[in-house]
């Protein structure tokens, strides 16, 4: 899966390059991926997606060996995305370069206990003293944080509505004992755990951020009549689990058998309708089948409105063909230099088990076609971030595309 020459695109003051390596030696994998991404002068930022299966310390050492002094953020991934298709065990590096970009990186730890404070810390001085007509905060959060929306709220508290947000949550993989491997982040020359890292970027060119999920609304919206954070007790004054399953025509066993419930609900999240946006919420296996409550990843506000969602493999794959053009359109007619893709790990899992076989490669091939020979790299996340308006911007089971103009 190695690219012989990496990918590279440039405007007069900006360039964007991508390199991917499948080398099994982690030090060499980092060095090779970074070398392939650094195809222009004056690099300003490296963004690293590193397989959870690789030791991040030698990976980072290899990157720094060929890119000493270049600001860097990165995170672990359960699987990576590139022009050669999906893979596991890879290192992907994206490089922003040229005088048209100005960058400041930041990091905070302790987000599993204090997520809001982490968001505030990572964004507090993000754009201080930085000028530029276009601003973006690129965030890599921790997929093991239960209240990731609190991180985004903290970032919004510092930056307000004028700065677009994009990014994703560090991914992981199951260990032999069934537990999740610990996620990690990279920040300049450090490897961090329990962290959030960010890059405040100003640019002479625009950024385009788009999110699509491929789900269909089922029936009419439902009012959240009782909830606390991600636990939803009642919808339309009925036990949430029963109202949700009734609306979607679930099989009888889903009401009382946890395994049947999980198999049904993992394909059918809730959509939180906000004033300016919509946010998909993954329904976890922590539902209380006795009291009828649902548990979602992310806030589902009491008094708000939600919509049960349904999908199939075709609509999941087709989200690529809606998200990518929307990100390009958001550039306002300026040509794209390249793309970052933040795709939900649950979407990957769903596409790997369709009745017609594994369709993950088909989804990535659509990304390649949409990128149209421009560089791109991405990873399968444990939460997606996209906000161009509104307050929050945390999504699940969605595809976020960042177009760099």
How many strand elements? 27
General shape? globular
Structural class by secondary-structure content: alpha+beta
How many structural domains? 2
> What's the multimeric state?
single chain
Instruction: State the helical fraction.
Output: 10-25%
**Count of DSSP H/I helices:** 10
N-to-C span: 27 Å
| Mean pLDDT across every amino acid position | 93
Low-pLDDT segments: 1-5
Radius of gyration: 20 Å
Largest sheet: 8 strands, antiparallel
Which range does the strand content fall in? 35-45%
Describe the structure.
By secondary structure, the protein is α+β, with helices and mostly antiparallel strands. 24% of the residues lie in helices and 35% in strands. The chain has ten helices and 27 strands. Strands 15, 16, 17, 18, 19, 20, 21 and 22 form an eight-stranded antiparallel sheet that branches. Strands 1-2-7-3-4-11-12 form a seven-stranded mixed sheet. The chain has a six-stranded mixed sheet with strand order 6-5-24-23-27-14. A hairpin with a 4-residue loop joins strand 1 and strand 2. Helix 1 runs parallel beside helix 2 and helix 3 runs parallel beside helix 4.
